[in-house]
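Hey team,

Filing this mostly as a record. A colleague (T.K.) asked me to run one chain through the structure pipeline before their review meeting, and I want the input and output archived in the tracker in case anyone asks later how it was produced. No errors, nothing strange. Just documentation.

Input sequence:
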Amino acid sequence: MKVKIIVIACVLFCQSLSARDEKGRPAQSNLSTNQVAEVRSPDKSVVLQVLLSASGDIQYLVKKDGIAVIEPSALGVVMKDQDFAAHMKLVSGSYPKLITDRYQTQNAKRSNILYKANEQVVTFSNRDNKKMDIIFRVSDDGVAFRYFFPWIKNTETILKEHTSFSFNNQARAWLQPMSEAKTGWQQCHPSYEEHYLQDIAVGTVSPLKSGWVYPALFKTNNIWVLITEAALDGTYCGTRLMNDSLSAVYSIGFADPREVFTGGGYLPQNKKAWLTPWRIVTIGSLKTITESTLGTDVAPQAMLKDASFVKPGKASWSWINSKDDYITFDEQKKYIDYAADMRWQYCLIDADWDTKIGYDKIAELSRYAKQKNVGLILWYNSAGDWNTVPYHPKDMLLTKERREKEFRRIQAMGIKGVKIDFFGGDGQSMIQYYIDILNDAAKYKLLVNFHGATLPRGWQKTYPHLMTAEAIYGMEMVTFDQAAADKQANHCAMLPFTRNAFDPMDFTPMNLTGLTSSTCTRKTTPAFELALSVLFLSGIQHFAQAPEGMAEVPDDVKYFLKTLPDYWDDVKFLDGYPGKYVVIARRSGNRWFISGINGDSNERTVKLDLTILNIKSATLFTDAANGGLFSKKDWDTRRGTINITLKANGGFVMVSK
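Output structure:
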């Protein structure tokens, strides 16, 4: 396939870069002399331009269909011994090339994904003649770029990244504040567990003063923009967006110095050729945002040589209902039976199992579960001095030697996975700890769930055994706080557009019959909760429904939950608006599962044209009108538009026949 990527050099550097049309001929241009490169998406709808000022500042801007999306914004970094943010000179630009990548996953919106982007590498040098490559990729759904420093041989530290994202002053934002390090229960923050500020003016300062988490959603000139990062390795810290109230500019911010592994650092550091994480800007409609896979497209390929042990599915989980006092042998055996009855593949045994049940009895439970085709997942405290959480097992994972000893022991017991909780933030050394855990878990064929944790940022592609991560104000908070229960519907209607847009999310959804062992009252309807089983993406979905409540659920809804697919082949956005409502269709094989929720406290009617799904008929589950849990109706979906009325905080699921 021929591609058209125009590369235009400043007058002083025209010998380095030359513009070419799609047949390789010199192209004509009347663009300003400070533009040094222009990269277009394969469909030519997205254009990224790279600029160099007379004083040597590097900038970029992005347009969609000719409309400004990202205004001129800064590029560059400052190292301890080198400055790559000012007084830069253009060295060269690579010839354009089309990047094509096909990959498979059982932990995302699609099982087979094709990524296409036009790539251009532009090289700059600083005052010391040290080089910095900037790798730009432009796809039909957005842009991604990263820095490359090929010359590094000794330890270098990045003190500041100057990358920014500048918006029109009239743009709006939907953002989650980053919590301050060492705050929260037992000093467990940050863990990406705040509610979103919705439809706020750009420039609004985070109320927690620590910036904003990814993915960050904006609307500018009627175009939606979602910003995140990927390819985060142990050389870099997890970043966030920072801003002040005087401008519409959001800049890359580093982790708090307190967000570190014991004795480790928080700043990016490397001692060999260095590729920094990708900065990702997804651009288009809400359909683009919810269907895009850009957050995993640029992540590194899977590192597992043998992924046969990676099996997605569903799990029962006692703690969400019966809490700490019921981490007992008999209670866990009951939940194993429950998982087996529901044809769910896993049962999670939560905190303090090592003393309340003990290793020998856990081994007995594992053997019992295996007979019922259920695998056990065990909870661990990440430990270290970054929190004061007393739950255990604790201190088992802090060194490679201790991790491998523990993983070897539980693998021999037949345990299938681990849930590791209460991490201490996004510093470089803490990110390395996450990756060390993933590497060692892979060696012992253990699935991983990170809780009280950072955003995965595409790790699930590189480490397919990372089934899910919390990094969200989830269902457990609804059991603790009535204010959280009151906001749940609105909060859930935000997540397909933000947190769950690219990365698996362990919200622990679907409480159909009310919360047990909780003083809080759930404000969402049963059909809303049922819809979350399809709406939310997680490699292992830990359901919040107790077996006693499931006994009240109609048989046809139980059958739906017993036969719910373990992963999805395709996705279609049908309707919605962040925080208000959302309707998404997911395909497994030749069947479509359509899920919708109403995040408002008022009734809403959605009009759906299901002819695009090419299905003839479907069964609808929604809220009962007579005080029951659900109503059921068969639809002929070939008739055109279907109107579905959703109760306040209500929802529906529709399954094609």
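Quick notes for T.K.: The mean pLDDT is 94. DSSP finds 14 helices and 36 strands in the chain.
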